[in-house]
Amino acid sequence: MPERAIHKTDFHKSEQSILSIRLGADGFSFSVYHPFDKQPATFLYKETTPSLTFIANLQQIFSESDFLSFPYEQINIFTVSTRYTILPLNLFDEQQAESVFHYNHLKKDNEIILYNVLKKNEIALIFGMDITTYQFLKEQYPQTVFYSQATSFIEYFSDSEKDECLSKRMCICLCEKSIDICCFEHKQLIFINSFACRHTEDCMYYILHTWKQLDLDQQSNSLYITGTPDKQELINELKRYISHVIDADIHPTIHKR
Fold it and tell me: What pTM did the predictor assign?
């Protein structure tokens, strides 16, 4: 994973760059890109302090990090959560987004409901975000755009130009406390779900159950894994059952828009 200290980067031309912020349960990732570069010029990961609230952790890093106050051409914020749902785009109504979301997820206090439209995939992804965090970031960056991490995950793998796009394939994104599972046939999304899990055994169960449910072939279909760095144990276990398991080392590239 490309990684450099923020203070070693020249930010005199920050207004020509893109800042992407990923909000995870256990930490925050910050990536700075030039629009024409595939890899970030700068990547920083900051773990949260367990004794502080989520918003207090976020406020602390903003108070300590000058680079977050610089002007950028574009700012994207990605939130990691299992609280999302998708709809075919032809059935999506912005006015009904909150009702549809709460049909699938129990209502929570202090949560704002947002959505992303994925035109190429012909779906809308509706997701929840802590409203205090949302308001704080809106104050810092009034023009920012908020995304579910699942949005960038779907778009990245559905846009892949690999030969495997001609057949079914599964794509896994490991997060701190959950796992996202997407399946595609050609470039069409045919399955997506997130599961709360921390241990390899739990991840194995959800992956293999979904693999069987969708009738994927152990010899001919591929499985891509991205996400947290400590995924090698899971990869080794999956190779006992699936021939083509690929470590798709795309973070933080997945958050470039």
Answer: 0.86
